[in-house]
Specification:
Blueprint: E1 11-14, E2 17-19, E3 30-31, E4 34-35, E5 38-39, E6 49-50, E7 52-54, E8 57-60, E9 67-69, E10 74-81, E11 90-97, E12 100-110, E13 119-120, E14 125-129, E15 140-147, E16 154-157
Antiparallel strand pairs: 1-8, 2-7, 3-6, 4-5, 8-15, 9-14, 10-11, 10-13, 11-12, 12-14, 12-15, 15-16
């Protein structure tokens, strides 16, 4: 079964992949195949330089405070502010199975009762759309991080691939154990 869309959204303000956004710090540049020491899927070669590689989808077109639902059942492995990455604002990460995660950044708040270690059900309200951290308006920075088959290394993937219309909608890594 494919990942459930986190909320009904009307637009993607920043998609997956390279961008030349001038409003983002140069320190967010990508050189080679690594972004913050994480390999990025489908970059296109071992030596690529772009102003910024956006390893997620920015989903918006909804009012601040709109409910975000769990794309799949799992356990919350990160919740709240990340002191190592304050630009992400309030965030949540859900582990579907070992090596398989999805998450959201720039949240307004976590849903009542959601905290580190919480079990969440597919479709459960887990957070609300916000613009915390370094954000230009209300949206969810939605990412998918999965283990590479045959390795112990995880990689960031384009979330569009795992929605019902995506090429990887039936990938076993996005199904709970």
């Amino acid at each position: 079964m494919a990942l459930l869309k986190p909320f009904a959204y009307t637009q993607i303000t920043q998609g997956w992949g390279p961008t030349k956004r001038l409003d983002e710090p140069a320190g967010w540049a990508m050189l080679g195949r690594f972004w913050y020491n994480k390999p990025v899927a489908a970059v296109g070669g071992p030596f690529v330089y772009v102003a910024h590689f956006h390893p997620a989808l920015d989903l918006n077109g909804v009012p601040i405070g709109t409910a975000i639902v769990a794309s799949e059942a799992g356990i919350v492995t990160a919740a709240g502010l990340n002191p190592k990455s304050p630009a992400s604002g309030i965030r949540i990460q859900v582990r579907i199975r070992p090596g398989s995660f999805y998450g959201h950044g720039h949240l307004l708040r976590l849903a009542p009762g959601i905290k580190l270690g919480s079990k969440v059900a597919r479709g459960q309200h887990i957070a609300d759309v916000g613009s915390s951290g370094s954000a230009t308006g209300p949206h969810s920075h939605f990412y998918v991080q999965l283990v590479v088959p045959g390795t112990n290394q995880d990689m960031l993937y384009n979330p569009n691939l795992f929605f019902p219309y995506g090429a990887n909608a039936n990938d076993p890594r996005i199904k709970p154990l």
